[in-house]
Please model this.
Amino acid sequence: MSIVAPSLLAANFLKLEDECKMVNASEAEWLHLDVMDGQFVPNISFGIPVIEHVRKATTKFCDVHLMIETPENLVSAFKKAGADSIIIHYEVCANLHRNIQQIKELGMKAAVAINPHTPIFMLDDILADLHHVLIMTVNPGFGGQEFIPHSLKKVEKLRRMIDERKLDVLIEVDGGITVENAQSLVNAGADVLVAGNTVFSSADPKETIKKLKACSR
Model:
């Protein structure tokens, strides 16, 4: 069964507590929190104060995705805000191994995200140090984008790398995930499905989460 991580970026921000309660009552295990700085990606989302309040409202694992430059400067603050895991981008970290160790030393799960143009083999030397890898299936920065088809091949390649080494590393996918394409991603090797508009814009978000959760290899 897949892990479902509703992306709060697509929630109604006037009703964040209600949205968190809905996720709490659903079959989702994680809550995905996208932090954007307007520098690494062309958008600004939310930051530490919002996550502090969300942490109080949710019982779910808080998966914090830092789409920001110099994430090492803020990792400790996000830990205090309530992050259970921190995802940093391969593309902005000049000292990636050190950044991963910093996250783990603070007691959080460490993950690395890669953009659509970044090949899987770039993770070769740090894969064993990670809890999960986030494959961006759209270009980061905005919700509601269409899934990039070649992302399936990237998931398959990463699945083979993980299985060949017998590593306990999860594959997370984010961007354009729908009820219609979720099963193909899970078949390719994905473990965690991040879904924003698919969940929060649906007529019955809990039922949508249930359908995503039902995907299995």
About this structure: Residues 151-164 form the longest helix (14 residues).
